[in-house]
Amino acid sequence: MSAAPAVTTRAAGMLLIHGAWQGSWAWDAWLPEMTARGWTCNAVDLPGNGANPERDAGVEITLQTYVDALSEAINAFDGPVVVVAHSGAGVPASQLAETLPERVACLIYVAGMMLPAGMGYAELVDASAADVPNAAGIAPYLQWRDNGTTTAVPAAAALDIFLHDCPHEAAGQAAAKLTPQRESGRALVTTLSAARFGRIPRIYVEALRDRSVLLPLQRKMQALVPGALVRSIDCGHVPQLARPAELATLVCDALAEIGIGIGGDGDTPASRPPR
């Protein structure tokens, strides 16, 4: 039996960031898996997602709005954390790492938007449309509201594009929880540097059956922002709901491979729940 990889960085916990039209609830099926493996996790609600109307009243939703909220969340941990970003959350997660590189032990993109500085996801889709069928993903199904400033996802489209391989009852519940998204919170472009963002270890979990961020687009982003440890999971756009235990093991094993462990006692992060 080979020796376990040495831990070079101890993480105080995980910060979980949901994608567009979602909330902290998007991680509910995954949290018990990570807790069983010893991780302390905080799943946040991004500003403007409907979870805290009083907090968000009159607030302009920008990339900086997200980074400010995530900075507050990350500072609640006593030490660097692993930042896990699903889908569109990849953009604010990257900018968070640029802003607070000393507080981010690792970035994990789950079917996420790992884009280079200055590029928006719509630009990537437009550039790929000729050779990637259905590259637009959910976009053709969106309902535009409030004079084009907000979008919403119809439940039927969510079930077909996001949740097609998730457990039936859980998929229905997730589709019903989706909330309108301000477009200013989706059309985001980062400003990144090699000295700050570029020094953070990254893991990319590609979803092989994704109908939203299609696999060819995931792989184009990996090529545009090279250096991530890439792992694959055979499911659609929401691995944390479709295959939570498999995703948890995959993530923990990948962290162990790059030498990131749980803060506190012990030699390595667990890859399996205690028996």
Automatic annotation (TrEMBL):
GO terms for molecular function: trans-permethrin hydrolase activity. Residues 15-248 form the AB hydrolase-1 domain. It comes from Paraburkholderia metrosideri. InterPro entries: AB_hydrolase_1, AB_hydrolase_fold, MES/HNL. Keywords: Hydrolase. It is an enzyme of class 3 (hydrolase). It comes from the Bacteria. Its EC number is 3.1.1.88. This is Pyrethroid hydrolase.
